[in-house]
Amino acid sequence: MGLFTKDIKTMDDLFLHVLQDTYYAEEQILKALPNMVQKATNRDLTAAFKSHLEETERHVQRLEQAFELIGESPKGTACPAIDGIIKEARRSRETLPRRRCSMPRSSSQHKPSSTMRSADMERSSPGRNKPAKMRSRSFWPQL
């Protein structure tokens, strides 16, 4: 059943299609995340992927409950959007150089210090200064 096709005639049809689309996407994410956990080179990123994996497992369980409530069996319908995202993630893993990147120990390293020189500040409005340019390290390695 494709969106904007003759198969969707009622709101119930649309609801079922959205459930199937979401179920497919969550299942694909569930398949991809363990590999992403394994390939992550940063402990914070690894923890985030693990957390996302647990969250996705709960999403799949809830979707299965929703299917049960409407008397349908859990079944996905292909979702080109999530397929493209996962394909891009796989391609990035294969083509990007393997370098370890480090995250700052605390978020305070990203905030401009109160002792910044006035030359580093620009006037945004009367009585308010803002940094002209943030000079923080990026999470992603520089290519």
Per DSSP, the total helix count is 3
What is the count of β-strands? 2
Enumerate the strands of the largest sheet in spatial order, edge to edge or round the barrel. Answer: 1-2
Identify low-pLDDT runs.
106-126, 128-143
| Major pleated sheet | 2 strands, antiparallel
Order of helices and strands: HHHEE
Overall pLDDT confidence: 75
Could you tell me how far the N terminus lies from the C terminus, measured between alpha carbons in angstroms? 42 Å
Question: What secondary-structure arrangement, pairings included, does this model have?
Answer:
Elements lengths: L10 H29 L3 H27 L10 H16 L25 E5 L2 E4 L12
Antiparallel strand pairs: 1-2
Helix pairs in contact: 1-2, 1-3
Top keywords for this entry?
mainly alpha; 6% strand; two-stranded antiparallel sheet
Verbal overview:
Helix 1 (about 10-40) runs antiparallel to helix 2 (about 45-70) and helix 1 runs parallel beside helix 3 (about 80-95). Strands 1-2 form a two-stranded antiparallel ribbon. It is about 50% helix and about 5% strand. The protein has about 140 residues and is mainly α. Mean pLDDT is about 75; it is low at about 105-125 and about 130-143. The protein has 3 helices and 2 strands.
